[in-house]
Design brief:
Chains A, B: This is DNA-binding transcriptional regulator, MocR family, contains an aminotransferase domain. The structure is a homodimer of 419-residue chains. Chain A contains 13 helices and 13 strands. Chain A has helices at residues 4-22, 37-41, 73-83, 97-111, 135-143, 160-166, 191-199, 230-236, 266-279, 285-295, 298-328, 353-362, 394-418, and strands spanning 28-29, 90-92, 126-131, 147-154, 157-158, 172-177, 208-212, 243-248, 260-263, 334-335, 344-347, 365-366, 384-387. The longest helix of chain A has 31 residues, at 298-328. The model of chain A has no long low-confidence stretch (mean pLDDT 97). At the A-B interface, helix 2, helix 4, helix 5, helix 9 and helix 10 of A face helix 2, helix 4, helix 5, helix 9 and helix 10 of B.
Chain lengths: 419, 419
């Protein structure tokens, strides 16, 4: 690229810029995909939507008492069209879709699935993990004894040829996937790629797409991709039970006090119900009724999400502008530009993302640890950084992005000069 | 006992009384331990205790966002003295202690315990089940692959000699127990018996008391037994990690929308935290804050429980009076007379409880299926009936108890005449 003397002066500039940033003594944090307080304020009225005089669901259920394993039907009817699943194949649960994921995987390990009653846990069991991906998916699966196999992604989703090759092993039981505004790249699986995933031959008869639709309605732009009807795509491909759909309102209403969802093929939902009935009495129906009243209908959710976008989109734009201004001209890195979700992925030169994270930490910008986006925390190219711009204020996000740019510039010129 | 002709006329009388009752065409249900609506009303103010302007815990936590795996410390401090556990060894969770039970047992099956890291699931695993006991305990454990071994109880708790004999098998990993106002007998484990359970030699180094303190504060009488400090008793006996304590507010505030608790020895709580951190982000802290504000302190819980007793105790008394009036003179059955909890156990003559349940169902009184109080639904003596008097109105409870008495009288004289 440039001559050594040019690089040397670039490094000096980058180093000076970094030192200037670090000298400000800031304390910024763009590590986790948490909603900002202003986003949580949007659902303030939900908190008092059920009171001691008015606690019955539209269908007449006393939400304060036991029972109702499926969750309130009125809540399922609001979210079913948004998730593109039939309401009678949608269950509503507690405050975390991670619980549904844990339960479904544990049931499969202990009892097999709706398709094959041989328990996954009786032999070796592996999951495909498109990378970069969501650290909690990997941690959960590892804790349940799955071996995690990484597969690459492109802009349309996981690379099918690689998935198919690995799925020739009957121990490969499924694949994690955040199909819409993927954590952390923000890419959305295309319908064509989803059809391939639905149809893909696999050695395990109950190969399962762990379809974590965490950002199904989390659009940031007027123009955005459509949610996919993965259950129908799977059914059309002859695998009606292949997808397990997960979602929650954690980033719609209140993180940690929302409601979660599970959907699947008809037999899978029966299987889930039968297994859940042995370990659970029922979800918090009062909180489900709060959600029913707060949203009224599916359109109410969409209106609500546009208010989120008004808060979140400027933060995404601030990061993208800082990256373009600071790194674009010299092409020192690449980054995704999502239409929704909670994350931007920055791809640095190979071998320096850990250095960038370290520099940033020392300069007062906390970043997700390098490697967190990969199974076992191992990013083989050491070049992926997840940016989570939602939680800080817009001013803080702008500052943090400037700091991040300074770190990438410094680490990049260090590498170029060394290499 | 009586001469055949006496018995024959008794049977005629019993039959006529039963037919008279059945002819009323009632529809009564004393099957499940659900709180009555009036009990749920007691916690009405809890529902609006957190609103959009006032959502921070006393310690300053924004309860609307992610995090806080242990649960709110202020809630744990309210319930720790009531459960006789240290607050820093008490975790507060979601809406069901059954979830904590499932999680703890699943972690032990997959990863071993704080005492022994050999996964229980790697070999045969069995649990001791004092009978009669709680059907959901049995169903849960069976679904997790445990073999269930019944052991008898007396008025002070499980029979130690039998427990100890069975625990010579290293596959015996623990024992279910509802120590206070046991489901369904209502008996409370004495301190002497608890000390024996704490000290009992077992082949499994991590033999665990599954101490489900579901009715820890559910007293019905002024005079009542004290809660036991089982963690200290276990520590004094040299087994500081032996007890896992479970509890919830399901029958304190709102069934299905309460908060749950887990406590254990210091290493066990660390073990639980570490494992939970891989499958959960944190409980619904907003609901926990509602509970903190509603109760204020431990005394607030006790005051609240006296209001429950005012509603529940007359229903227990109505059942006890009907049993005494209808069955006492002829000693046709025995029953427990609990000082708290949700259940009365009726012990009929051997071999007729299924007949009583069937007769009652046909006469409009729904009873818990015979056998439900035993593992695998098998009551070998066919003589145990669980009575759950809380949910119906007092009038309905009185009627149901009269109907039950009529059924027991009829089935008893049928048996006496046949035998």
């Amino acid at each position: 690229m440039s001559a050594p003397s040019d690089l040397s002066s670039k490094l000096d500039e980058a180093s000076a810029a970094y030192e200037e940033f670090a000298s400000r003594g800031l304390a910024l944090d763009i590590t986790r995909g948490k909603p900002a307080p202003e986003q949580l304020d949007l659902a303030a009225d939900l908190l008092t939507a059920v009171n001691g005089d008015d606690f019955r669901s539209p269908g007449g259920v006393d939400t304060r008492n036991y029972g109702g394993l499926d969750g309130l039907i009125e809540l399922r009817e609001i979210f079913a069209p948004l998730l593109k699943v039939p309401a009678d194949q949608l269950l509503a649960g507690g405050n975390a879709s991670l619980t549904f994921m844990t339960q479904a995987l544990t049931f499969a390990l202990m009892h097999g699935t709706a398709v094959d009653d041989r328990p996954w846990g009786q032999g070796p069991h592996k999951l495909l993990c498109p990378v970069p991906g969501y650290d909690r998916h990997f941690t959960l699966a590892e804790s349940l004894g799955f071996e995690l196999l990484t597969i690459p992604m492109d802009d349309e989703g996981p690379i099918i040829s690689e998935a198919q090759r690995l799925a020739e092993d009957p121990a490969v039981k499924g694949m994690w996937l955040v199909p819409m505004y993927s954590n952390p790249t923000g890419i959305t699986v295309t319908e064509a790629r989803a059809r391939e995933l639905a149809a893909m031959p696999t050695a395990a008869p109950d190969f399962t797409l762990l379809w974590d639709n965490a950002y199904a309605v989390h659009h940031l732009r007027e123009d955005h991709p459509d949610n996919l009807d993965i259950l129908s795509l799977c059914a059309e491909a002859g695998h009606p039970e292949r997808a397990w759909v997960f979602a929650s309102t954690s980033k719609i209403t209140h993180a940690g006090a929302g409601v979660s969802f599970f959907a699947g093929g008809p037999a899978t939902v029966d299987w889930m119900r039968a297994n859940l009935g042995k370990v659970a009495i029922g979800p918090d129906k009062i909180n489900q009724l709060r959600h029913v009243r707060f949203f009224s209908d599916s359109a109410g959710v969409e209106v609500h999400m546009r208010k989120h976008a008004e808060i979140v989109a400027p933060k995404f734009d601030a990061v993208l502008k800082a990256l373009e201004d600071g790194l674009g001209a010299e092409e020192l890195a690449q980054w995704t530009s999502p239409d929704g979700g909670y994350f931007i992925t920055l791809t640095t030169m190979e071998g320096i993302s850990d250095r960038v994270v370290k520099l940033a930490g020392e300069a007062g910008v906390k970043l997700t640890p390098a490697g967190a986006t990969h199974p076992y925390g191992l990013d083989p190219n050491n070049n992926i950084i997840r940016i989570a711009p939602t939680m800080p204020t817009l001013d803080e996000v702008e500052l943090a992005a400037q700091g991040l740019v300074a770190c990438v510039r410094l680490a990049s010129y260090e590498k170029l000069l060394a290499g």
